């Protein structure tokens, strides 16, 4: 059966309409939607974490309803997820230390005291993976009925962290008052 050029274009348009869109950030495909806890999450923003001159990872933030302020993101109900796609090899010790420093810089002392046990357990997760390789993906997902889970390349590691304040403390590493990278915060909050 011979198809006309218009029929081929129509078939291509239909096929494209059924697929999720993605953006490219430093060579990393970042989907505009993902599914977490049986819920469709929308890309709130994505950007590159740089340290000195080095590109470390691409971060992407997903929520049920994209927002442009930290307070609004923290208040959005439902699941949330942050993904880090490594752009270089990094030791888990270095990454774990960076996570803990980011939490300390963005969480007041009273809240830190309440989260101490969860933060200790979270820090120990990094010891289960000696090194993160270029292309590895760390996902930290908040599921309201369960808590926070951490995954590396889609595989859950460690236990679930039940407190939403814990997830918010982790999220503030990137979107808190003292973010690890100001340009990345702007991108994660939907800025250009």
Automatic annotation (TrEMBL):
Xref: Pfam families: Chalcone_3
Keyword Membrane set for record: yes
Chalcone isomerase domain: residues covered: 24-190
Organism this protein belongs to: Sapientia aquatica
Gene Ontology molecular function terms on file: intramolecular lyase activity
The keyword Transcription is annotated on this UniProt entry: no
Protein name, as recorded: Lipoprotein transmembrane
Alphabetical UniProt keywords: Lipoprotein, Membrane, Signal, Transmembrane
Signal peptide region: 1-22
């Amino acid at each position: 059966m011979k198809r006309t050029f218009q029929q081929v274009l129509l078939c291509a348009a239909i096929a494209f309409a059924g697929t999720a869109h993605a953006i490219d950030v430093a060579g990393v495909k970042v989907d505009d939607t993902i599914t977490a806890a049986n819920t469709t999450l929308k890309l709130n923003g994505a950007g590159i974490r740089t340290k000195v001159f080095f590109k470390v990872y691409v971060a992407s933030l997903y929520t049920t309803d994209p927002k442009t302020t930290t307070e609004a993101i923290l208040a959005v109900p439902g699941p949330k997820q942050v993904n880090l796609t490594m752009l270089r090899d990094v030791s888990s010790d270095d990454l774990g230390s960076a996570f803990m420093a980011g939490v300390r810089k963005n969480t007041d002392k009273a809240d830190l005291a309440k989260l101490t046990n969860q933060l200790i357990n979270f820090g120990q997760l990094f010891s289960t993976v000696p090194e993160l390789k270029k292309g590895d993906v760390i996902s930290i997902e908040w599921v309201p009925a369960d808590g926070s889970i951490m995954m590396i390349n889609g595989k859950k590691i460690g236990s679930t962290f039940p407190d939403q304040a814990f997830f918010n403390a982790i999220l503030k590493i990137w979107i808190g008052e003292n973010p690890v990278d100001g340009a990345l915060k702007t991108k994660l909050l939907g800025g250009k």
